[in-house]
Design a protein that fits this description.
eight-stranded mixed barrel; globular; two-stranded antiparallel sheet; alpha+beta; 257 residues
């Protein structure tokens, strides 16, 4: 009887072990599939450019074939890129904030999901601040690297990102990064410049883990990049950046225009 019990226990433990290994293999395969999918997207829809801007303007380091990308999915809102990092992804915007949590840019199921704009924001990045979400993947993909900006040296090595849209290209001048709660005032949306928004900019800049010399005009347009952080329940790491059109002469100066 005791031998039967021992054998039963061993069999159950073996099945649990096999199941756990199988789950790990399955998740790793999903990670690899997602990496291949987005690598293919980058190769298919973007290319590097060496063109110089004019009259003090600066040209984005990549170009995006939005016409081809929109044939795949009309929900594409832009492309976000940061040189020297893994951030090189299409940006989506759906009718809600659920679809692209677990679907790639081509609407296929994806454990990594997509980088996507909050559904409550107006399209075209015309609001005073636009919120962009991305998963913090354990393999370092999507927005997992946002927490790197908690270090001053990392910020100095990557002070800007790029946001390319079908209408125009923007340089994202980063000015603040910090850990916050998912229900904090950081996620307050402002459609138009107001005194409250001016105060909001001052408050979020004061929270930053890194120091940046950047002017923050209240009538400018900004993005909030958000991902999960694992330091407390419902923690998030966010980066704030000012959108400066790439075709604006002198618009990329770190100390303002």
């Amino acid at each position: 009887m005791k031998k039967l019990i021992r054998r039963t226990i061993m069999a159950v433990l073996l099945l649990l072990f096999i199941g756990s290994v199988g789950m790990i293999v399955f998740v790793l395969k999903q990670y690899r599939d997602d990496e291949r999918l987005y690598d293919k997207a980058s190769g298919e829809f973007t290319e590097y450019t060496e063109e110089e801007g004019t009259e003090g303007a600066e040209t984005a380091p990549i170009t995006v074939d939005f016409e081809a990308l929109r044939r795949v999915n009309e929900d594409v809102a832009g492309w976000i890129y940061c040189e020297g990092t893994v951030i090189d992804y299409p940006v989506m915007q759906g009718k809600d904030n659920d679809l692209y949590l677990h679907h790639a840019y081509d609407r296929s199921y994806s454990v990594s999901g997509s980088i996507f704009v909050d559904a409550q924001n107006r399209r075209g990045f015309v609001d005073s601040n636009t919120i962009i979400y991305g998963h913090h993947m354990k393999n370092g993909s999507m927005f997992a690297s946002l927490s790197g900006w908690a270090d001053q040296r990392y910020y100095e090595a990557h002070p800007v990102m790029w946001l390319l849209t079908p209408e125009r290209d923007y340089k994202i001048i980063l000015f603040s990064g910090y850990t916050t709660s998912a229900d904090s005032d950081t996620y307050t949306m402002f459609s138009e410049p107001t005194q409250e928004f001016k105060e909001y900019l001052g408050n979020v800049a004061a929270k930053s883990d890194f120091h940046a010399e950047t002017e923050l005009p209240a009538d400018g347009h900004y993005v909030v990049l958000s991902t999960c952080a694992y330091v407390f329940d419902n923690a998030r790491y966010v980066l704030h950046g000012r959108l400066v059109p790439a075709d604006s002469a002198g618009g990329v100066k770190m100390s303002g225009e």
